[in-house]
Amino acid sequence: MSDVHRLYAITHSLYSGRARAYLIKHGIAFRELSTGHESFKAEVLPKGKLPTIPTLVTPQGEVIRDGAAIIEHFESGSGRPCRPPGPAQQLVSALFDVIGTDGLLRPAMHYRWNFPQDNLGFVRYHFLHSQRDLPEREAKTERMMDRMRSVAQLWGVNEDTRPLVEALYLECLDALNNHFESVPYLLGGRPCIGDFGLLAPLYAHLGRDPYPARLMQQRATRVYRWVERMNRPDQDAPEYFDADSEFLADDAVPASLLQVLAVIAQDFVPETRAAAQCINQWLEENNPAAGVAAERMLGQASFTVRGATLTTLAQPYRFFLLQRVQAVYDELSGASRERVDQLLAQCNMREVMDMRLVRGIERADNLEVWV
Ligand SMILES: N[C@@H](CCC(=O)N[C@@H](CS)C(=O)NCC(=O)O)C(=O)O
Description:
The longest helix is centred in the C-terminal third of the chain and has 32 residues, at 255-286. The protein has a four-stranded mixed beta sheet, with helices on both faces. The chain has a two-stranded antiparallel ribbon with strand order 5-6. The protein has two domains: 5-76, Glutaredoxin, CATH 3.40.30; 87-108 and 162-370, no CATH class. Helix content is 54%, strand content 9%. It is globular, with a radius of gyration of 20 Å. It has helices at residues 14-25, 38-48, 67-76, 87-103, 105-113, 116-129, 137-149, 151-154, 162-179, 193-203, 210-219, 221-230, 255-286, 316-330, 334-346, and strands at 5-8, 30-33, 55-57, 63-65, 300-305, 308-313, 361-364, 367-370. Residues 13-15, 51-54, 66-68, 101, 317 line the site of glutathione (GSH).
């Protein structure tokens, strides 16, 4: 037993940044340990089931693997401080969670791995030091990095698509920067679930690796400040002078945030459509038994944006998180459904509410399993 939470994570890990920021923002005392720590394999992995980070061990010894589950653990026990009260904001918050943890992996991987002159030494330090100083650690680091180097390609980045991937990311940065002109967080004076999801790619990769961090500092200072702000326990918004610490009143979703979503929709929507088709076909052909762990990747999905064809991995996990967005949507009726439909139409995201797998996914014993 320990009196603080243990967060198995690592500084340069995309998903770790999301859970870590949640703990920091909510004043939850924790000690961060690498998976290279001997306790990980011996004590944590048997209960966590998969060797992924972040994985949390509570002071009572409960093991929670997965960033969304870690956040849900605290949210459900504390009156859901990160869930806005209104349905439109709830839906937008949940949507940004999917966008961050799944939709922006392409630029994250591209800007980490395709700028070796600027990034390699920095990234190598982190891979090396996630392991103990054993004789095989140099060789293991090279093997891990070789495996990761091709990862941007798996998300559809190649010589032909690179200009598109960069253009879309820069448009996203500009739109977000514009949004943060008026508010310190996505939906006002405090972070919502979507802020934490969005932080995943924008911290460890895009906000910290040398090349993309400089790009963000120079081109989108307000986004860079949001990344810093998300890693501070206080509100950290002195430049807004009169910011309150609440979500925007009247379930408002500012036009500037819809503009961010419209930029992201350009690849998020066709990619989600293509992934749903690919996974649904697999489900129909394979019909996995209920309770079986959902595969992390299920084939490749191709789609076209501005004339360029992108081929990416289809991941059931995207739909696991999307179910939460769709659950908020399904609850709506009458005027509130109409209003949300209008907002979604304005940012070209309406269709995403209908992109569903033929089988649901739920969590059981630290795994995502087919329902
Ligand atoms: N769904 C998980 C994904 C976690 C994940 O894939 N983490 C990466 C590091 S950022 C990892 O642990 N990769 C090692 C592996 O997949 O074996 C979450 O959101 O926490």
